[in-house]
């Protein structure tokens, strides 16, 4: 399986972050695809076209999500910059989110 998926978890409650808008962008900032996390906090297939090798950005609209949750957050947007080396490989980019911190890792 090729492509890109993501999962956003509310690290404070341990629950999925439902309704987070996500944008996939190339290195120049051009939007390639967009979506919103589902009831499990996931977007199973962010893009329909295969990723090309190079730098990409996965941008999460955390400010709107915090506002919807009636929370004050420090990060209005999280931009995860990552590099695709093998376009034939599936890439999974999770985000663990809280109002004053976030973390990510290369998932499988």
TrEMBL record:
Keyword Flavoprotein in record: no
Transthyretin/hydroxyisourate hydrolase domain ranges (all copies): 1-107
GO BP: purine nucleobase metabolic process
SUPFAM superfamilies: Transthyretin (synonym: prealbumin)
Residues holding substrate: 7, 42, 105
Reaction(s) this enzyme catalyzes, per UniProt: 5-hydroxyisourate + H2O = 5-hydroxy-2-oxo-4-ureido-2,5-dihydro-1H-imidazole-5-carboxylate + H(+)
E.C. numbers: 3.5.2.17
PROSITE patterns assigned to the protein according to its UniProt record, in alphabetical order: TRANSTHYRETIN_1
GO molecular function, one term: hydroxyisourate hydrolase activity
Family to which this protein belongs: Belongs to the transthyretin family. 5-hydroxyisourate hydrolase subfamily.
Protein name in UniProt: 5-hydroxyisourate hydrolase
Record organism: Gordonia aquimaris
Organismal lineage: Bacteria, Bacillati, Actinomycetota, Actinomycetes, Mycobacteriales
């Amino acid at each position: 399986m090729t492509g890109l998926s993501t999962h956003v978890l509310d690290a404070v409650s341990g629950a999925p972050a439902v309704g987070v808008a996500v944008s996939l962008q190339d290195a120049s900032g051009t939007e390639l695809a967009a979506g919103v996390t589902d009831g499990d906090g996931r977007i199973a297939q962010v893009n329909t076209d295969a990723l090309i090798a190079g730098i990409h950005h996965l941008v999460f609209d955390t400010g709107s999500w915090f506002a919807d949750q009636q929370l004050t957050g420090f990060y209005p947007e999280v931009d995860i910059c990552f590099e695709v080396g093998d376009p034939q490989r599936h890439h999974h980019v999770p985000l663990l989110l809280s109002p004053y911190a976030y973390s990510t890792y290369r998932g499988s």
